[in-house]
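Task 17 of the worksheet. Students: predict the tertiary structure of the chain below and write it out as structure tokens. Keep your answer in the requested format; marks are given for formatting as well as content.
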Amino acid sequence: YVLAVLQPHGAARVAAMIGLIAMAAFGSLVVGGIAARLHILGSLVRGLASLGPGADRLRQVLPVLDPAEHVLIQLLRDTPRRLVAVLALELAAQGFLAIELWYLLSAVRVPTSMLHASVIEGVTKFMNAVYSFVPGQLGVAEGTYAVIFGLFALPAAAGVTISFARRLRSIVAAFIGLVALVSLRPRRPAPSPGAV
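Model answer:
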């Protein structure tokens, strides 16, 4: 959509093309790996571990990574009903994020349609995936929103404001999750006075 309809120029076009090619290659690799039951992440970690730096830390991840990757392959290949359920939940979650974006746009007095908000949300997801290697997306998320809003002829300041609002929402949700994790953790019974 961005390349065909908005037709960005310069660095924005180059970034969109690189992102599109990288995501297509990654998607093809994942689909091929699932179809062939290949443990791509485990193989990648083993390959990185053989290079030397940080090898011990990478090898420590393998006992957890291999079973997790097996479960993912099983879910995506062998249990189509579960896959459909996961995809439906993910689609609903993305829909709620588009509604949130539409509401936030209205709150900062940048009226737009629900369709427009959905497209912006999709483009934002794409750009966030391209820059997923940046820890916490600090600075990247704000810049991404500013650039995307500029592409859609919306004020870049509104994009940065919305990025901050979403980051605040994420922090609050993480805090609530942390409190729930600590409070719901099973407690060990206190040792009885006569126990050794």
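Marker's comment: The CA atoms of residues 27 and 33 lie 10 Å apart. Helices lie at 2-6, 11-35, 40-50, 55-78, 80-107, 114-130, 140-151, 156-184.
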